[in-house]
Amino acid sequence: MIDLIFNNKSLRHDFKVSIVKRPPTMFSIKNKRKVEVLGGDGDLYLELGGQQDITIPVECNFICSPNEIRDRFRLLKSWLNNVEDDKLIFTDDHNWFYKVVDINISSMDVIKRRKGKFTINFICRGYHFKLDGDEFIDIFNETILFNEYDLAKPLILLRGNGTIEVDINSNKFEVEVNEFVYIDSELEVAYKYEEDSYNLDIGDYPVLIHGENLISYKGNLDSFEIKCRWRCV
User: Fold this and answer.
1) Which of 46, 134, 218, 219 is 20 to 30 A away from residue 124, measured at CA?
2) How do the domains of the chain map onto residue ranges?
3) What letter does residue 26 receive in the DSSP assignment?
């Protein structure tokens, strides 16, 4: 029986709630703008970059004693409203996850006093992320990473001191390092601590293209780690 893992808990094992049917595999839509072409055949579509968010509806039900049914639903709502881990994983596709950005939960229908029925709508980013791509790996000078999927926006952790130059596929950026620094291409920020972020002064935030990615660097660097964030639509 299919289950889902979210916010460090299992829907089935921790709440004794079943998924009525497997949600459909969603395909996100590219962000585009339609431009009418006067006198032309059809319209012009301009790609704006990125993918639209998707909504994954999960129909759920559970059975318990009449005096417990509403307390069970309250526990579920509390779990969904206090998110510490935004990964949504379905157990029949356990190597991939969605990034949840918002959650809507329907009201609960109570059937014959013992059965609760409701729907959770998970609003997610328009990509499916590979679970092992969310772990840091060590990078050495002149390393080649192969990306089997779509363009990825990694998180890089540099340890060292002074000005560090990083080159990925001949696209370079420079950053000042004082012990360590993170470069987050998804958020387009650099930071030592999250509450004190800033922009790169020189160069663009790195991406990992489909295929081979050659990584090199210069400077007083002790270690180079990267979360590749492999993803596909």
Assistant:
1) 46
2) 4-130, 135-232
3) P
